[in-house]
C-alpha cells in the first residue's frame, strides 16, 4: 500500500510517499520550512501545501513533536504552546480534506525501525532515542510500542535532559562530540537504570555521527544507529496511517 508519511518538526515539515509493505520511499522526499510562529493553523496550511506537492488523495500519517492522545496534542515542549489540547488530526483533516492520522514523532520513527530497520524481529526491551532540537523516545517491549514516553524530559544534572544533551545544546554550547558524548552517556545510563533495555537505537541527525562519540558510551545495552536514519519518522508515520486505515475498513 502507498501512503503519504509526514514528519512535522520545529524547522522543517518533510514528507514522502512510502511503500508500507517494504518501508521504502517512493520518489523524492519534499521539505517545506516550518512556518514561524508554528501555530496550528499555519502548520496545517503548510501540510496542505505538502499534500498538494504530491497530488496525494489518500490518508496521511503525521509524526508530531508532542504527546498525542487520540489525535489531540497534550504537550508542547519545542513547539508553539497553542498546540496544547489542539485536535491535530481533525484540524489537519479539515484543512487538507484528507483523513489524517497523527502520532508522536519519536513513536513514528520507532515503528519504522522495529518493522524495517535495526529492531526488526528483535524481542525484549528496545528504546529508540531521537536527538534533534529536543530528545524523543519510543519504548518497545517484544515489538509492542508504549506510546508517548517523553523520556527526553527526565531530569538529569539538575536540568530537563533535552536541555542538557540534545543536538541543539551540542551546537549552542559548541561542545565537541567527545564532550557531548559523555553527557549523552549519562543520559543513556539513566534510561538503563530505569528500564534495563536490551538495545538502544539512535535516530535523528546525530545517528549518522555515531562513530564520533561511540567510544564515550558505556551502557551494557549496545547503542546502534537507526537503519533508516533521518527517514524513519516519515516511514513510521506512513505505517501508522496504513494501520489506522486498515482498522477502519
Ligand atoms: C517533545 C517530544 C518529541 C521530541 C522529538 C520533545 O521536545 O516533547 O514529544 O518526540 O521533542 O521531537
Structure overview:
There is one protein chain. The strands form four sheets. This protein has a five-stranded mixed sheet. The chain has a five-stranded mixed sheet with strand order 10-9-8-13-14, covered by helices on one side. Helix 1 (40-53) packs across helix 2 and helix 3 crosses helix 7 (232-248). The two termini are 14 Å apart. 33% of the residues lie in helices and 27% in strands. It has helices at 40-53, 88-96, 105-116, 162-165, 167-172, 177-195, 232-248; strands at residues 2-8, 12-19, 24-33, 60-64, 68-69, 72-73, 100-104, 125-131, 135-141, 144-146, 155-156, 159-160, 199-203, 223-225. The mean pLDDT is 96. The chain is built from seven helices and 14 strands. The protein has 249 residues and is α/β, with parallel strands linked by helices. It is globular. It has two domains: 2-107 and 231-248, ATPase, nucleotide binding domain (Nucleotidyltransferase, domain 5, 2-Layer Sandwich); 121-226, ATPase, nucleotide binding domain (Nucleotidyltransferase, domain 5, 2-Layer Sandwich). Beta-D-glucopyranose binds next to helix 3.
